[in-house]
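I am still learning, so can you show me any protein sequence you like together with the matching structure tokens, please?
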Amino acid sequence: TEMVRTGDTCSYSGRQIQAGYGSIFVRGDGKPFMFKDHKTAVHFSSRWNPRKIDWTLACRRLHKKESIVTVRRRSQRSVKSQARGWGSMTAGQIAAKSNTSK
């Protein structure tokens, strides 16, 4: 086991691990598991399902107690072009003039 970096999340509880806390367990196939404290490591090694343990994020999300916050992207507005006059001429006069010149 070794110390965990800042910003990692616990593999069992889903909570964020503070700097200087936690431990890492590396399975035989090389996959690392980060744990917040000894309690989560014991639950993981006992193979208890995190969806059945009330204080884990997996259980809270399953029972709709806590939701994942997503940021909604703004939709772009389509730009509508507006025909305007030029000088003393109106838009209709300009269109009529351009059609006659062709």
Summary: The mean pLDDT is 85. The chain has three helices and two strands.
